[in-house]
Amino acid sequence: MAINSLIPTSHFTCVTLKRYTKNPTWRSLDFGIMPDCLDTSVSCFVVKIWGGKEDAYQLLIEWKVCLDGLKYLGQQIHARNQNEIIFGLNDGYYGAPFEHKGYSSSQKNMLLQVDQNCVRNSYDVFSLLRLHRAQCAIKQTQVTVQKIGKEIEEKLRLTSTSNELKKESECLQLKILVLRNELERQKKALGREVALLHKQQIALQDKGSTFSAEHLKLQLQKESLNELRKDCTAKRELFLKTNAQLTIRCRQLLSELSYIYPIDLNEHKDYFVCGVKLPNSEDFQAKDDGSIAVALGYTAHLVSMISFFLQVPLRYPVIHKGSRSTIKDNINDKLTEKEREFPLYPKGGEKLQFDYGVYLLNKNIAQLRYQHGLGTPDLRQTLPNLKNFMEHGLLVRWYVPSFLMLRTVM
């Protein structure tokens, strides 16, 4: 399809249609791709349509179109005649009322009927010339405007490049300023760190001197400690030796106690201490008060000597007075100071106190047995518990002199 402008005369091809189409439709005219010399203000132009195959084309339609003579067809395209060209403008579709084959001469000569109120005189030739010159001036102005616009765009592009360089320069200057400030800050911080380092070095030197002095003192103390260890080792050896001697001596003394206060058993299962019979606490009789007092005196002294040699304080202290020995109860808080001493010998009306004193003596024997891991099932067996303790707890072998054996038999 080609359009020829009438005023001024020019020729250009606007669009090419694809092949094998029955109802061809051309795209809208793009005035942006039209040549600058084309006057777009004209109202008349020539439309030419070619058709053919391969390279053999021929002119099919040549139509001089006047826009003022087109007929408005509506907002939509309805069924029309064949080989009819329809123009799509902004307000709708327009077409030719005649100018096609098949129309009768009467239709061609048909007058256009319009409202008389809309009829007005057309422009004269001079007015049209002035209008045409004005349109040409406008077109020339548009061309000049486009040219100046391109020059402005080029200058703006160059200015934009310059602005970018200035922007980068200002950014770099700002970075340099920030880096200089950071450098000054780091220098000040470095100065503080160096001063702190000098201070810490001085403190470290002082601590090193103190450490050297303390180390020397430690060496002296180590030497003194070694001397003390040697003295301690010597004293420990002396202590162990003395303790062994003390143990041996204690065993000797305990063995000698078996000679001083021998405990024997006759064939009647009666126990004797130094040849004096001492029955169990529940078997005391009034007729034996004298011998019981003597036997309890021996037993009380034997128990007190054992606790002395073993260095085990008795819970109930024994006051040795021979056959008039006593024992004290310092634990019971219900007793007064005068009531704490109990006899280990029978007295006329004080049997209850005597029995309690014997009970306390048996408790002392049970205490000694407990210290050496021996239990006491029956507290009343005074001499059997004491003899068993010395044999199994102290590993003492009893020796009974012959005169005591004879006396016991008698």
Automatic annotation (TrEMBL):
Presence of the UniProt keyword rRNA processing in the record: no
Alphabetically ordered keywords of this record: Coiled coil
GO biological process, alphabetically ordered: SNARE complex assembly
GO molecular function: SNARE binding
InterPro entries referenced in this protein's UniProt entry, alphabetically: UV_resistance/autophagy_Atg14
Pfam family, one: ATG14
GO CC terms of this entry: endosome; lytic vacuole; protein-containing complex
Coiled-coil intervals, chain numbering: 162-200
Protein name in UniProt: UV radiation resistance associated
